[in-house]
């Protein structure tokens, strides 16, 4: 009986301590999540590229499967369908052109072709999603965006099927790194002056049954939704670690 009473007292004391600790955790702020909560209020939609500049994009595919050509055209998706992005400067950004790609297949087969910028396109902040407007010509091909993380590792993010007519905004989520070492790493406490994520191109994987004849695809308005908390709250008097 004495042993049973002692066990019951021990359980009661442990429960009281746990309740007090839980009440304290509910009433006091948790320093480990303060930064994450604050960063939720610093999500911004930023422009990466509007596909306006000659020579800024290139195309390539295996010469065994066909011939590929890329050029700029006047036009693009319905302006009312695109949400405007606020700019810091007073100068209005030109958004009148789009980038078109034409592929002339030699034969059906499993193949891919690439659309790449002349240099990697760095993204401000910590990217959460990437989006681009595409006219896919209702073919069963698929679009993948190719990215490079903070440490120069290459990754690919699936954006979706091109089996639709007209213009459509395709979106890919950027998965966060679980520990800052694995997956797509976008920032580091050791190197805080370099950009985190860069877009290095797009890959279109062709459906073998549809990869014949001539195929056209158009791109416009590459954007990202980024967490700009650290970028916007950087100390202007901080010293750069570049010596």
Describe the structure.
Helices cover 16% and strands 39% of the residues. Strands 1, 3, 4, 7, 10 and 12 form a six-stranded antiparallel sheet that branches. Strands 2, 5, 6, 8, 9 and 11 form a six-stranded antiparallel sheet that branches. The N terminus is likely disordered. The protein contains three helices and twelve strands. By secondary structure, the protein is α+β, with helices and mostly antiparallel strands. It has a single domain, classed as Jelly Rolls. Strand 8 and strand 9 form a beta hairpin.
Query: Which spans have pLDDT < 50 for at least 5 consecutive residues?
Result: 1-39
Named at the architecture level, the CATH assignment is: Sandwich
Total of domains: 1
Largest sheet: 6 strands, antiparallel
Euclidean distance between termini CA atoms = 73 Å
Number of helices: 3
Structural class: alpha+beta
CATH topology: Jelly Rolls
Order of helices and strands: HHEEEEEEEEEEEEH
Based on DSSP secondary structure assignment, what is the total number of beta strands?
12
Overall pLDDT: 82
Name the shape in a single word. globular
Q: What is the percentage of strand-forming residues? A: 35-45%
What's the multimeric state? single chain
Helix content: 10-25%
The CATH class is: Mainly Beta
Radius of gyration: 25 Å
């Amino acid at each position: 009986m004495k042993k049973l009473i002692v066990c019951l007292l021990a359980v009661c004391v442990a429960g009281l301590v746990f309740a007090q600790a839980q009440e304290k955790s509910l009433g006091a702020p948790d320093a480990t999540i303060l930064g994450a909560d604050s960063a939720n209020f610093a999500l911004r939609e930023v422009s990466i590229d509007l596909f306006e500049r000659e020579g800024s994009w290139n195309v390539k595919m295996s010469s065994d499967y066909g011939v590929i050509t890329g050029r700029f055209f006047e036009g693009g998706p319905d302006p009312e369908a695109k949400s405007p992005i606020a700019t810091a400067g007073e100068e209005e950004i030109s958004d009148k052109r789009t980038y078109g790609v034409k592929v002339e297949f030699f034969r059906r087969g499993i193949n891919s072709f690439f659309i790449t910028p002349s240099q990697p396109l760095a993204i401000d902040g910590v990217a959460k999603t990437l989006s681009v407007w595409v006219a896919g010509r209702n073919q069963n091909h698929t679009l993948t965006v190719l990215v490079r993380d903070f440490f120069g590792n290459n990754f690919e993010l699936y954006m979706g099927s091109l089996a639709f007519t007209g213009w459509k905004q395709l979106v890919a989520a950027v998965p966060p790194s679980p520990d800052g070492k694995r997956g797509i790493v976008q920032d580091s406490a050791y190197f805080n002056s370099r950009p985190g994520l860069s877009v290095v191109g797009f890959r279109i994987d062709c459906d073998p049954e549809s990869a014949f004849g001539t195929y056209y695809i158009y791109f416009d308005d590459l954007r990202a939704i980024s967490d700009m908390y650290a970028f916007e709250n950087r100390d202007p008097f901080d010293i750069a670690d570049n010596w």
